Amino acid sequence: MDHPRRLQVLQAIVDDYVHSREPVGSQALVERHKLGVSSATVRNDMGALEDAGLIMAPHTSAGRIPTEKGYRTFVDQITSLKPLSAPERRAIRTLLEGAEDIDDVMERTVRLLAQLTHQVAVVQYPTVKATTVRHVELVRMDEHQVLVVLIPTDGRVAQRVITLGEPTSEASVLDARLRILASVTGRSVVQAIPAISAAALEAPSAERPIMLAVAEALQGLAAISSEQRMVMAGTANLANATRDFARTIGPVLEALEEQVALLRLLSEMQQDERGIAVRIGAEDASDPLVETAVVATGYGPQESAKLGVLGPTRMDYPSTMAAVRAVARYLSRVLGP
């Protein structure tokens, strides 16, 4: 929008409506916001905003409320996000850094984000393609069995017992471990598999079966981990927003329970120059999330996995965007190498 004052009026309408859920009139805008113009001028601006499809009058009310297009215009003009308060940052750091494993991290993340935003919080598990190897440990159990422990950067420790056809010594296991670490550390789990196989070709014959068995074990882990997973919290927050849905919230709850539509949506959302992706409504009226807004951002290696919040389009976008971005940064730090 190239009319600064009308944009200011739109911002004021969005701000008032988000916090009061009451249609906003011109007199209220003049009284609550320093617009520097008369009520008549504000009414003219509101008329122009309505003609542009940015606001609308619900029923016969004299006030106006934002449309999806109005929210989008409002969100697009947000150039900077207000940082979280010091207590909020401390709460994030304390909660996430106290987690015991990846599942605990994911659960704590969504609970925290739901509390900060009062919306439904969702987080995708890191994908195996984006997860790098932090450490591999081999423990010789007997001459035919070796325990393989994989510690990737996503924190999900995996272990598997491999059985060898030929007896192996403690020294061979230790030497194979060193070769494996030299070839895979810092690589993704997927890249580690061919790297170990290639290194095995140059290894002594005593170590080669061990390394090939480890590569096969990682192949199985990659296959299991390739499935997309997500966890959510704060679904009860939708109960406080039923008035924001013209239709029943049933389809929204079903979509959250099935997860497929939301996972696809998160995967398709593209971040802007602020590092945030915001979807408001949907073009397809049959979309179960048509009356919702989703604010998301990537985290972790290559930011391939996303976390975010879902709620009604009447959302405090600046605060929500700031909270999502802050939590994502802390989560990346916790899961980082």
Q: SSE order, as H and E?
A: HHHEEHHHEEEEHHHEHHEEEH
What composes the largest sheet? 5 strands, antiparallel
Name the shape in a single word.
elongated
**CATH architecture descriptor text of the largest domain:** 2-Layer Sandwich
Percentage beta strand: 15-25%
* CATH homology superfamily name of the largest domain: GAF domain
Fraction in helix: 40-55%
Strand order in the sheet with the most strands? 7-3-10-9-8
Number of helices: 12
Determine the CATH topology of the largest domain. Beta-Lactamase
Protein name: Heat-inducible transcription repressor HrcA
GO molecular function: DNA binding
Keywords: Repressor, Stress response, Transcription, Transcription regulation
InterPro entries: GAF-like_dom_sf, HrcA, HrcA_C, WH-like_DNA-bd_sf, WH_DNA-bd_sf, WHTH_transcript_rep_HrcA_IDD
Task: Write a compact overview of the structure shown.
This protein is α+β, with helices and mostly antiparallel strands and 337 residues long. It folds into three domains: 4-75, Winged helix-like DNA-binding domain superfamily/Winged helix DNA-binding domain (Arc Repressor Mutant, subunit A, Orthogonal Bundle); 86-125 and 228-335, Beta-Lactamase (2-Layer Sandwich); 130-225, Enolase-like, N-terminal domain (Enolase-like, domain 1).
